[in-house]
Write a structure and sequence with these properties.
662 residues, mainly alpha, Rossmann fold, 2 domains, six-stranded parallel sheet, 58% helix, disordered N terminus
Length: 662
């Protein structure tokens, strides 16, 4: 029994134009199936698929191969037309994409908080103009909204492909007419090498740019394009074809099963899945592996792959959003069922219907199809841009709550000024000269000097201490995501590793410090980092510098602003928010305090300073929110913490008593 018993999912291949093989290869649909299934299982956080994100790279290689092959066939046959090429791409991509955008925005307008609707509106507008990857690169970083609440995050890869489709035909035709295949091949090899080298060089300082931007993905597309010239020049050997097939499938499987989000990717690590895909493409005469990839289930999944990719992420985001960020096994099952049903409907009703100029689609001539796409895109863009620019349609909330929440961009702008970002709180590479010029690490004579070290929560703490103790000089060495434990970072890490190494080995005046304050987003990893944290404390003790550790902050999931939107009022909000606070604070406090005080260092309970009997204040007496997202403080939040801290510790020197936090 088959999953689909009719011919509705059967591909409609175009006849071959040249000796380079038929336009349709069922094994490539099998490759698409592997790619999309690995991506979906990775996003569902299924154990064992930590490298499932490489499915996107498999897609890139396939696209590079198919697009280059089609262009070359038409060039060799004297039939190439830019208009026909771009129309074919538009029919392939835009109907399903625009349908996904429309459905996603409709659901988002109902369920998303204003902050998240702003993000959705902005990302929808970017997706329409094929700029999603650029937008998400600009937004990426420690203060970026959690990826799990961005329903269109996955469109970054579509934008990379669309940018490739825009540029590559122009380049390929120009190179072909100027020097034939030799010039095209030379260009591809050079572009691939430059892309790989660029990714390796830039990754340590700007890994988000390497991940999202097209120039650093060119290598993957170029590998696919090079297959066009390799596939028909390999010796006709069954053994070679089978060997390439096994090698390719093994390389892809290894990447999916052994890579993880911590893998330095893309760059050289992308070669494993990309060359594996290339090997499978070139093994077109193999029987066993390619026969496996050509099985009906694999072929059907491959045919559905574009629709599956489009719908799975918004569905996952909305399911998780309504479940307060928790994805249970039942939730995973629901996402899978909804994804498959939606993808089949999308393929049959939209993708297949408009992909080829046959059947009912003949009613739309090319000019009519283009006009329809533009009209639908504009119709979608107008409300999306309005939601983005108007603050996320805050009219959906009571006036009192609108005023209390304020404008998120202004709140974060003030916060960035408060934590001295990017001069003293670094998001990129740590630069000693810049820190020196900004006075971030400057001692002040005639006053106590304390150094605050850690991540963005340490930057919050610096902001609070600076305001609470005006007669004390607090130096600042903080970086996005930099938990203050040097041994966690390699020498390749130009932000955290370089910063932590500098302050202990090269910071002028370290011996004159009155103490070092460590703070960060302490979490369940503390139990795994007992030795590392003890070693960090010992390294400061060896420098004869007192150390105090500030404990974990209160964290909420979903974020506080989303909770306020759901609750709908300020009265009683503290008690409501308590239900969504991470409830591991007490055991985490005890474990961290034990490690620190055993060393003889001081410990301060950040949580205990402001949260009484497990409930934390959400707004101050002027109805200003104290928390900006899941746990970072607003400027008012830092001021509030500082006022409470001074009452408990009139002098910062008291932080360093080994029983300070008790």
């Amino acid at each position: 029994m088959t999953l689909v018993s009719s011919n509705l999912l059967t591909p409609t291949p175009r006849p071959p134009h040249s000796s380079r093989g038929s336009s349709y290869r069922p094994d490539i649909d099998g490759l698409r199936a592997i790619a999309v299934v690995s991506v979906i299982l990775f996003h569902l956080e299924v154990r064992g698929f930590g490298g499932g994100f490489v499915g996107v790279d498999v897609f890139f290689v396939i696209s590079g191969f198919l697009i280059s092959r089609n262009i070359l066939q038409d060039l060799e046959g004297g039939r190439f037309s830019f208009a026909r090429f771009y129309l074919r791409r538009a029919r392939r991509l835009f109907p399903a994409l625009l349908t996904t955008l429309a459905a996603t925005f409709a659901v988002g307008a109902v369920v998303l908080s204003p902050d998240h609707l702003v993000s959705l509106g902005r990302s929808l507008a970017a997706a329409i103009v094929s700029g999603s990857n650029i937008l998400f690169w600009q937004e990426a970083g420690y203060f970026d909204a959690n990826a799990t609440v961005k329903p269109l995050l996955h469109t970054w890869s579509l934008s990379v492909e669309e940018q490739f489709y825009l540029v590559w035909p122009l380049a390929m035709v120009g190179l072909w007419r100027g020097g034939g295949s030799r010039r095209v091949l030379g260009f591809l090899v050079i572009a691939m090498l430059l892309s790989l080298v660029g990714a390796e060089v830039l990754w340590p300082s700007d890994r988000e740019a390497v991940f999202y931007l097209a120039p650093f993905r060119v290598a993957e597309l170029a590998i696919g394009a090079l297959c066009v010239w390799v596939v028909d020049r390999l010796p006709k050997s069954q053994w070679l074809a089978e060997g390439l097939g096994v090698l390719g499938l093994t390389a892809i499987a290894f990447s999916i099963l052994r890579y993880s989000p911590r893998t330095p990717f893309p760059g050289m690590y992308a070669l494993m899945p990309c060359l594996g895909t290339a090997a499978l493409i070139c093994a077109k005469d193999g029987r066993h592996v390619l026969g496996f990839l050509s099985q009906p289930v694999a072929r059907v999944t491959g045919l559905l792959s574009y629709s599956l990719y489009l719908v799975h992420w918004p569905i996952l985001v909305f399911v998780r959003y309504r479940a307060d960020g928790v994805l249970t096994n039942h939730g995973r099952a629901a996402v899978l069922v909804l994804t498959v049903v939606s993808a089949i409907a999308m393929y049959l009703l939209v993708e297949k219907r408009y992909r080829h100029a046959t059947g009912r689609a003949t009613a739309l001539r090319p000019s009519q199809f283009a006009a329809a796409c533009v009209a639908l895109a504009v119709t979608l863009a107008l409300p999306a841009i309005h939601a983005w620019r108007s603050g996320g349609w805050t009219w959906r909330m009571p006036r009192e709550l609108q005023l209390a929440l304020g404008d998120k961009s202004e709140i974060f702008r003030r916060r960035q000024v408060g934590i001295r970002s990017p001069e003293c709180h670094v998001n990129g590479a740590f630069d000693v000269a810049s820190a020196a010029r900004s006075g971030c690490l400057s001692l002040r004579e005639g006053t106590p000097n304390f150094l605050v070290v850690g991540d963005s929560h340490a930057a919050d703490l610096w902001m609070a201490l600076h305001g609470a103790y005006p007669s004390v000089n607090f130096l600042q060495a903080t970086g996005a995501g930099c938990l203050p434990i040097e041994s966690l970072y390699t020498t390749r890490d130009v932000r955290c590793g370089r910063m932590l190494q500098y302050i202990k080995q090269q910071l002028p005046g370290m011996a004159q410090l009155d103490g070092v304050i460590l703070a960060g987003r302490w979490n369940r990893r503390v139990d795994q980092l007992t030795g590392e944290l003890a070693g960090e404390l010992a390294s400061y003790r060896a420098l004869d510098v007192p150390v105090a550790v500030f404990g974990p902050i209160a964290e909420f999931s979903p974020d506080v602003r989303t909770l306020a939107f759901r609750f709908g009022r300020l009265e009683g909000f503290d008690d409501f928010a308590r239900r969504f606070m991470h409830h591991d604070r007490a055991p985490l406090e005890r474990r961290l305090a034990q490690i620190v005080t055993t060393d003889g260092s001081g410990y301060v309970s950040t949580f205990g300073v402001v949260c009484k009997r497990g409930t934390c204040p959400m707004v101050d007496e002027r109805n200003n929110f104290l928390i900006a997202d899941y746990g970072h403080w607003t400027v008012e939040g830092a001021e509030y913490f500082g006022r409470q801290l001074v009452q408990l510790y009139p002098s910062p020197s008291q932080f360093f008593d080994d029983d300070a936090g008790h």
